[in-house]
Amino acid sequence: MYVFMKLQQTRSSPAVLLGGAGRRAGPRGWTTPVPYCSTHGPTPGGEFCFCCRGSGITNGSTPLQHTRSATNGCPPPAAMSNPGRPSSQPSRGGRSPWSPHGERGRLPPINRAPGSFQFGHQDNLPSCTPVQRALLSLTLSLEKLQAVKCRMLEAMEKGLSQETHAQATVHMLPTFICSTPDGTEKGDLMVVELCQSHVRTLFVTLLGDGNQSPQLMYKIFELPADMLQGTGEALFDFVAQCVQKFLEEIGNPQHRLPVGFVFPFSCRQTGLGKAELISWSKGFQCSDVEGKDVVQLLQAAINKLELYHVEVIALLNDTVGTMMASSWGGKPCEIALVAGTGTNSCFMAEAQLVEVVEENNGRMCVNSEWGCFGDDGALNDVLTPYDHRVDQESSNPGERRFEKMVGGLYLGEIVRHAMLMLATEQALFVGASTSALGSKDVFKTQQVLEIMDNETGMAKARSALEALGLQPSERDCCRVQQICRAVVSRAAALSATGLAAILSLMCRSRELERLVVNVGVDGELYRAHSRFGEILQSVAGLLAPECAATLVPSADTNGLGVAMVTAVAQRVLTQRHEVEQLLAPLRLSRADLERVQGLMRQEMERGLGRDSNADASVRMLPTYVCNTPDGTERGDFLALDLGGTNFRVLVVRVMQEGIHMASEIYVVPTSIMQGTGEALFDHIIECIMDFQTKQNLMEQVLPLGFTFSFPCKQLGLDKALLLTWTKGFSASGCVGQDVVQLLREAAQRKQHLALKVVAVVNDTVGTMMACGYDDPRCEIGLIVGTGTNACYMEERKNVGTVEGEEGRMCINMEWGAFGDNGCLDDIFTTFDRMVDEKTINAGKQRFEKLISGMYLGEIVRHILLAMVDKQLLFRGKPSLKLQTRDIFQTKFLSTIETDGLALQHVQGILRDLELDASFEDSVLVREVCQTVSLRAAQLCAAGLAAVVEKMRENRGLAQLAVTVGVDGTLYKMHPHFSHNLQQMLQDLAPNCAVTFLQSEDGSGKGAALVAAVACRETSP
Q1: Alpha-carbon distance values, 326 to 370, 565, 737 (Å)
Q2: CA-to-CA distance for 316 and 195, rounded, in angstroms?
């Protein structure tokens, strides 16, 4: 807390010292202790030291450690001339007169909240003078500022929320600006800015050279005073005429000219170029505009002049222009604060916080419109009688309360009312007529700022007061200077409080321990008074210590910052169009998916047919698994799971109380994967023997279920011919051979005679069987991981490739090859073809290459390369790392698409891949990932829809209820894949109630259960 020492009036002689050294008595015996910072010197006008944490600021109980008194309550001349330097006057005894051990002890600090001080009630402060009370009422403790910050934060969060936005006083309006300049902006554009007293038009040519040499032409048109209170039509017609005159003067360019419209009033934006005026301010009150789209009003006025090539594409706020201008010269800026005639701020918020818009990726610039903060009474304990009177005399009483304490339009009026009330109490201008002070706007904010000057302030005060016929004394001038400084210091402190709320909100929403950010600052108050900036910086640092904010003065004197907003808007619109074109082939319509569903059904029928099976891309392989578990299975079983670079050996004990398993993982070296078949199966047998030895099972002959996750043509439950290798395997001498027989022959070579293979199954079948143990309705298996496949229970009479008519048989679809016959060529994009061409099985497993985790990252990488080539990403700079195959693993898609993941984490992932990504790049990469994974989920749903609809029709049911056992890292780990799959399946197969049950170790447990079911069926 910072504290003002108690003012005391005494009639003692000039030599009387109150409280020790450093006191000087003035005429009439008035003495005033002035707060003094040991580092930065006196803080005149009753100001505390905002420049440090030193003696000017306390913890709420310790007063200032250093003070100096001032004649007539004014700081000494030396202090006035150089407030930043400590006074050379030593205190007696080398101690602070107000220290606990000073000569007279210390005066108690005034702890009453200044904002709650009411004139006329002096019970707690019997010795306070009217000037003391005036200064106190304008002084806010650090504790009070902290409370105001908390209220501001609450109001901001209320404005961001969908539920409470309509009631919020801090509107937190989305601007739909999600990008900052990246240097690739190019072309001609125009800015039209509506200002307080003029219209500014600006023509800018950008060369795409990093914005190093923009070419500008501009002109200012004076705005007639009566326009401010006239009709909206007249105002916009005038603005359009300014555009026409300006274009005529620069040669009437006829090509399309995008325009950014700077409209510094509260608007509710629903798009970059669509905004309804909420309310006028700053002296404007044009009729028939509030509630209407101001972009359309201006465009209509321009069209009336037949300037059809001039297109208003964006509504911009002057505060956003400040942020952009402050980003100039390699200084990225994410916050802007305007302290001028009015006050406002904007900042780059996490888009997911802005609930009033659908966009939830990246960041969006939010226009806080914090001038209305306090309209609900949140500032009642801070408002002074002067604030109330200023508000009552304004054109909008009760509105924009924060702005009326901070904005330059009102500071002169606050000072005027303070002087008027002090004159009424005979504390100022004694004996002079003060009638001139009763007139509104006779004391301007510009005069307030001039009076604050250390060198010429007193002279300026005398001149301004004499112009009002007040005949001020030296003491009057000094008191007025104190009041001016207190009013402006309060405005700076309150602005800092709002800034601190934004900083804390950004730091928290980005999940940072410390936020480092640049803040663009503009406005007459900030530019005209250096002390304003010092207070702004220091108080914001005290109120938001977790943030390091650097104030960057805006250099937007010619409107270039605003022009850059327009350029960015145009670049974003152009890029958005190109991005949509690039991604359009990957965005499948409902009709596209229905066609894929129909093609899958067609290929399924061909695969089941005896005569057509050889030509079908979906092989529909019979598995000879004709039953699912019924719960009566018992015993110990071995399981072998081979489907990748690792394989597992398991022992599975099926008991009445459940299933218990033990397993071990073994590695298949690349040399064995790509060597001979004999070496591969010898390695497998060696690992089985090692496992049985460790589990003390070498003396037992246990039934073994073999999960072999490669395309096979099964001729029986324990007989399967390998059709082709996948997943990087290419062991020779295996294709066309019975893999169970190859395993048995290896066992004989290794003299392991206790091997009893009873079933060979696909991992998809294992998944179905494992889930079928828990849910008897599970008749479909689905794998969506490194690869993809499905199986289901088909009516045996429909399986033309095997004998028999009764019952059902599980069909291993091998749907990864769907489309290998060219039926999906129109679904394949350029990026899919690029990925396919680089695989070891080009032209094969086409459906799998659209869906499975092995390929999605590569699809994303090729899309990103195309975007870089079109200068849509990474500022068009080629990346050698991005040229590296398989750099973009599918696990990154899962991480990048995680809900609520702060954007800097996405940026961090990309930087770990040595990709220099901006936040805008990160948003675009996320969109690409979402597009690719959504297509994969929807294509998977189309395939599954064909399966469930066939099952329903086979059984003659109006409604089918079935469970899908599902496994695979993509399904399990991706944050949205399962939801997107289920949602689209419901849409494509509305007559099927499909439940998804995640498999726990389906490929291992499932194989054992196939063996268990087989043993159950053969047991007597």
Answers
A1: 20, 12, 71
A2: 13
187-223 in b/e form (b: 16+ CB < 10 A) is bbbbbbbbeeeebbbbbbebeeeebeebeeebebbeb
Spatial distance between the Cα atoms of 864 and 866, rounded to a whole number of angstroms: 5
Print burial letters for 291-322: b (CB count within 10 Å at least 16), e (below 16).
eebbbebbbebbeeeebeebbbbbbbbbbbbb
Length of the chain: 1020
Structure tokens at 812: 């291993």
Is the pLDDT reported for residue 222 higher than 80? yes
What mean pLDDT is predicted for residues 786-815?
91
Structural domains in the chain, CATH included, are: 1-111 (no CATH), 140-171+328-555 (3.40.367.20), 176-316 (3.30.420.40), 823-962 (3.40.367.20)
Q: How many helices (H) and strands (E) does the chain have?
A: 29, 30
What whole-number distance in Å separates Cα of residue 540 and Cα of residue 535?
8
Show the tokens assigned to 505.
Answer: 């909100």
Q: Using CA of residue 285, residue 289, residue 290, residue 295, what is the dihedral sign?
A: negative
Tens of pLDDT, residues 599-635: 999 999 999 999 998 889 999 999 888 887 777 778 8
Examine the pLDDT at 642 and tell me if it is beyond 70: yes
Active site residues: 648, 709, 763
CA distances from 1003 to 639, 697, 743, 981 (A): 9, 21, 18, 22
Question: Please, what is the average pLDDT of the chain?
Answer: 83
pLDDT confidence tier of residue 100, bands split at 50, 70 and 90: very low
584: helix, coil or strand?
Answer: helix
User: Whole-prediction pTM value?
Assistant: 0.69
| Token pair in block for residue 726 | 């996948």
Q: 67-71, 476-480, 909-913, 958-962: lowest mean pLDDT where?
A: 67-71
Q: Greatest CA separation found in the chain?
A: 125
Q: Tell the residue number behind the tokens 């104190």, with chain if given.
A: 482
CA distance 864 to 779: 40
Res 899 pLDDT > 80: no
Q: Give the pair of three-digit tokens for residue 225.
A: 């005073």
Q: Is the dihedral of CA 467, 471, 472, 473 positive or negative?
A: positive
Distance CA 521, CA 531 (A): 14
Structure tokens at 993: 């109630």
Q: Nearest CA to 950 among 819, 740, 808, 804?
A: 808
- Collapsing DSSP to helix, strand or coil, 299 comes out as helix
Residue 268 has pLDDT above 80, yes or no: yes
Mapped onto helix, strand or coil, the DSSP state of residue 526 is helix
The amino acid sitting at 42 is: P
pLDDT digits (tens, 9 = 90+) for 356-367: 887 767 788 999
CA distance 250 to 219: 10
3-class SS of residue 118: coil
CA–CA distance, 655 with 632 (Å, rounded to integer)? 9
User: pLDDT at residue 4 above 60?
Assistant: no
- Is residue 1008 predicted with pLDDT exceeding 70? yes
Tell me what percent of the residues of the chain surpass a pLDDT of 90: 56
Give the mean pLDDT of 994-1004.
85
Residues 6+ apart with CB under 8 A from 657: none
The answer to whether 344 touches 604, Cβ cutoff 8 Å, is no
Report whether pLDDT(525) > 80: yes
Query: What type of residue is 557?
Result: T
249: which residues sit within 8 A by CB, 6+ positions away?
Answer: 219
> In the chain, what is the straight-line distance between the N-terminal and C-terminal CA atoms, in Å?
90
Output DSSP code: residue 719: E
In whole angstroms, what is the distance from residue 513 CA to residue 484 CA? 39
Full DSSP string of 844-875: SSTTHHHHSHHHHHHHHHHHHHHHHHTT-SGG
CA atoms within 13 A of residue 171's CA, in its CB half-sphere: 18
